[in-house]
What does this fold into?
Amino acid sequence: MEALAALADGRDAHAELALGVLAAAVDARADRGAPSAPWAAALGALGADSDRVRGAGARLSGALLARPRAAPTFGYMPLAEALEHAGELALAERALRAAAGAREAGAADALVRVCVTRAWRLAEEGERASALALLRDAKERALRSAPARPSAPSPSR
It folds into this structure.
């Protein structure tokens, strides 16, 4: 795959272009799932040093995540972690929702964390209603995933 080769060789401009072409091809395949190579390219691009390549990786990730039948062979968690690390919290949230739906290890807790972080950012941007909705969702998820507390023993007389 051309995007992966360009990433490996450090040809950032070529990688960015190849990732853009790949994202457009994924969009054009709206009725079918994506093969595994685009997922690998997106993951590789998100770890690149170049902001432009990371941006292209985020755009490709968004196109891939829009295809619900096209799950990555390596699971959604590595992609979600890379998106979060790249500062793409909205996309990380989408990937984590898919990971949680697939019951991937650690997805539920990571989703709560990303929702809270995103909510604070939305609040800072003046998006109060969206922030509160995300915080409520995070709270509900945290309560659902928390282990049940043992009941206190009743005092004996």
User: Anything to note?
Assistant: The chain is about 70% helix and 0% strand. The mean pLDDT is 84. The longest helix spans residues 107-124. Helices lie at 2-9, 12-28, 36-46, 51-65, 77-85, 89-101, 107-124, 128-145.
